[in-house]
Specification:
- The chain is α/β, with parallel strands linked by helices.
- The chain is about 40% helix and about 15% strand.
- It has four domains: about 220 residues, Spore Coat Polysaccharide Biosynthesis Protein SpsA, Chain A (Alpha-Beta Complex), CATH 3.90.550.10; about 60 residues; about 180 residues, Glycogen Phosphorylase B (Rossmann fold), CATH 3.40.50; about 180 residues, Glycogen Phosphorylase B (Rossmann fold, 3-Layer(aba) Sandwich).
- The strands form five sheets. Strands 14-13-12-15-16-17-18 form a seven-stranded parallel β-sheet, sandwiched between helices. Strands 4, 5, 6, 7, 8 and 9 form a six-stranded mixed β-sheet that branches. The chain has a six-stranded parallel β-sheet with strand order 21-20-19-22-23-24, with helices on both faces.
- The two termini are about 30 Å apart.
């Protein structure tokens, strides 16, 4: 609870808190005294011995800033994430069973994150009947609709006087926008609504519980027509903050329909005044106050505008980096950004682009000239970049360019173009690069390009370490650095006996077979030939052993030839590229990734999420995942005999595989969830913007 000069209502509120029935696990109250100048501190002190109370004294004005400070204090106490952080106001009197009702609702609905209770008005002075009939009760007095049923609810109908949010939401980094909400006499309304709508965009659902009730004290001044009209003005300001620039045709910085509505309501108000129609005159004035608030915020305040993020790279094929880029675009869209994937054509690009478009992602072909990565025609390409490259990038209108680096300098030409256009750049690092020196041609171009870089994140500590070994001298001192590991959708990748059976039927595998699997490109980096050699060494020891290769690439023909030569065509399954690997991986007993280098290895954590023990070579990236894992093991890169012995021991030990499967799933949920990824990305971009 935040309180600013609440001494007139706090005694009744805190007295009601002394009668609250105690929920399971107890409760405590944090009051953030937000620059009060009345007797608020003395009132709180009088209840200190009667309530489990903590009192924060804050000089900074603003309700949301105060709530964020209180949240920081509350999060210092440990928890499992399911606990409720309950929000109320210094003029909201709860019923004795308030917390019990919220607790029961949250316990019965574990899939929901936000809970709203009923708010009824407690009139200190009843408003005139005509005003009570005309004024919108929710916007004016914060009272919920008495007809609102229990169950799922539009998140905009959950309000701050009676709202509960699971702890895990705030542990992930969510906070209230301290530029919105009460902060003196003039402010933009809608702070809790804005917060809840953002949560809904990120997939967190809201629930209404009518039995959890508080009574909102309405003071005599708050039932006067002038006060109601001022609320309309504040509401208009808040609506402007929440709407996006460019959502409708505009003139003078506001939607054209709004200016037309302003004119119509002004004429309507004059006509109602001439007719002595009191009700219509008030309704027109209310609408005019709302529109004036909107215009005030649009012209003098801060109107929300979606930040355009362009995500691009040097892409030669569809792999883990490209999948992560698409994943990031989805998460940024959910966080309120407007993202676009801008990529070069590669084999399979058109089919993938259409699939992404059906998922609501914006995808464009963008093929700028390459002059840092490629040496052929580099001077000609640099000239093309100077003449037309910057113009083409500006046409995409990005506020920020995200460039994914798959290898050493691959993506650097894009960074150079962004610097020329004065567009800030984020670099994501998806591999552990070798320490290769830059050429005399590359050095000045890279130095110029990296002036645009504002942030760098890598998918693993090893990837960041290798990147900095190359590029640290080129980065400005204030460049934001972070490690943001890849994520796996643990709602899609699940442990399922049914999926295991169905996947084996689809692949033509016996249900009792031992199955090694690999989801990876059939390319040199992933070393599928080494995996085939390992399988051929193991097969004589395990006659019921099969190998499944899910992926495509330049080594596919050679692999087919070697399988035929070994007479193993019935035991090695080439599954090709799989769009839904979550339906394939449960067929595996072990997942192997024998890469010669990795930035991270998305397939490794996807297998773990399916409850499949993951094995990988001891190289940077994979070692970051499996080095301390109980759900997987590292294999030596250059000792085929030792690797073979490790895999054979696991194939013989079914109980150990079962224990590893449980640990693998738990680690995927705890370390690599999409919730964790979304939170880290949101914080990273917010720190730059």
């Amino acid at each position: 609870m935040a309180s600013c000069n609440g001494a007139s209502t706090l005694p009744a509120v805190l007295l009601a808190y002394t009668h609250l029935q105690v929920p399971h696990g107890g409760w405590r109250l944090i009051i953030a005294d937000n620059a009060s100048t009345d007797a608020t501190a003395q009132v709180i002190a009088a209840f200190r011995g009667r309530l489990p109370l903590q009192h924060l004294l804050l000089a900074q004005p603003g309700k949301n800033a105060a709530l964020n400070r209180a949240l920081a204090l509350a999060l210092q106490t440990g928890g499992d994430g399911a606990e409720l952080f309950v929000f109320s106001d210094d003029d909201a009197v709860p019923r004795p069973d308030w917390l019990l009702r919220l607790e029961a609702c949250a316990r019965s609905q574990p899939g929901h994150a936000v809970f709203g209770g009923a708010i009824v008005p407690a009139w200190r002075q009843a408003p005139e009947p005509w005003l009570l009939a005309l004024a919108p009760h929710g916007l004016t007095w914060g009272a919920t609709d008495i007809s609102l049923p229990d169950g799922p609810v539009y998140p905009g109908l959950v309000w701050g006087a009676n709202m509960a949010v699971r702890r895990r939401i705030f542990a992930q980094g969510w906070r209230f926008d301290d530029s919105v909400g009460p902060r003196g006499a003039s402010y933009a309304m809608g702070s809790e609504v804005s917060f809840n709508l953002q949560l809904a965009q990120a997939g967190h659902r809201a629930l209404f519980c009518r039995a959890a009730q508080v009574a909102h004290i309405i003071r005599p001044a708050q039932v006067q027509p002038a006060w109601v009209l001022r609320r309309a003005w504040l509401f208009g300001r808040g609506q402007c903050r929440q709407q996006l620039v460019g959502g409708a045709p505009e003139w003078l910085g506001v939607p054209r329909w709004m200016l037309a509505r302003l004119l119509r309501d002004a004429i309507g108000a004059m006509a109602a005044w001439l007719r002595r129609d009191r009700q219509q005159f008030f309704l027109r004035r209310w609408q005019l106050a709302y529109l004036r608030g909107y215009l005030h915020e649009a012209w003098r305040g801060q109107r929300k505008r979606q930040t355009r993020v362009l995500i691009s790279s040097y892409s030669g094929e569809l792999g883990g980096m490209e999948l992560r880029m698409a994943q990031e675009a989805q998460l940024l869209d959910a966080a309120g950004y407007r993202s676009t994937l801008a990529l070069r054509r590669f084999p399979g690009f058109e089919h993938w682009r259409e699939r992404l478009r059906t998922e609501g992602l914006a995808v464009q072909i963008y093929e700028p000239p390459l002059f840092i990565e490629h040496w052929a025609w580099r001077r000609c390409n640099l000239l093309r970049a100077r003449l037309t490259g910057a113009w083409r990038l500006r046409r995409l209108r990005p506020d920020l360019l995200h460039v994914a680096f798959c290898w050493t300098t691959y993506g650097a030409s894009l960074v150079w173009l962004a610097q020329r256009c004065r567009i800030p750049v984020v670099i994501s690092v998806h591999n552990a690069f070798p320490a290769a020196p830059f050429s005399r041609w590359q050095q000045p171009l890279l130095a110029q390009a990296f002036r645009a870089v504002k942030g760098v994140y890598a998918v693993s500590p090893s990837a960041l370490q290798h990147f900095l070994a190359l590029y640290q001298p080129l980065l400005a001192p204030g460049t934001r650095l972070a490690v943001i590991a890849n994520g796996v959708d643990t709602a899609r990748f699940i442990v399922s006996a049914d999926r295991r059976m169905q996947a084996r039927v689809k692949l033509g595998l016996p249900q009792d077979a031992l199955v090694l699997g690999a989801v990876a490109r059939l390319a040199v980096q992933k070393r599928p030939l080494a995996l085939l050699a390992l399988f051929l060494r193991l097969q004589p020891q395990f006659p019921n052993l099969y190998l499944v290769l899910a992926g495509a690439g330049p080594l596919e023909a050679m692999l087919h030839e070697q399988v035929q030569a070994a007479g193993m065509a019935q035991r090695v399954i080439f599954a090709g590229f799989q769009a839904q690997v979550e339906l394939l991986m449960p067929a595996f007993d072990l997942h192997l990734l024998l890469s010669r280098n990795e930035g991270f290895g998305i397939a490794t954590i996807e297998a773990m999420a399916c409850g499949v023990p993951a094995l990988g070579t001891d190289v940077p990236g994979t070692a970051d995942i499996l080095g301390a894992s109980q759900g997987g093991l590292l294999l030596p890169v250059d000792d085929e005999g030792a690797a073979c012995d490790t895999v054979a021991a696991l194939l013989r030990d079914a109980p150990r595989r079962a224990r590893m499967a449980l640990a693998a799933r738990a680690e995927a949920e705890q370390r690599y969830s999409m919730t964790r990824l979304a939170s880290q990305l949101r914080q990273f971009y917010a720190s730059l913007m």
